[in-house]
């Protein structure tokens, strides 16, 4: 299986960064029972409080796709998107490192 690592950058409408962050933290709590989600961290950019970064690690594309399909069109997703002025998603190739994940080439 190939893990999916992603960085999401969400720029909230001016002055709405804290509100957007709270909605994303609520979403993170909802992922606790999703075994395919290995990491979902919500961060605020230190020098830009309306810029929120999400760091994600998924077991595989199927796990990510299942969650995306489940939240598509939900009231929670709509509420968060109303606060977003700009968004960018960067997909990464996970090579390894330190953390609660096996090194590249390790077993799952």
TrEMBL record:
Pfam families: ABM (PF03992). Residues 4-94 form the ABM domain. PROSITE patterns: ABM (PS51725). SUPFAM superfamilies: Dimeric alpha+beta barrel. This is ABM domain-containing protein. It comes from Actinoallomurus oryzae.
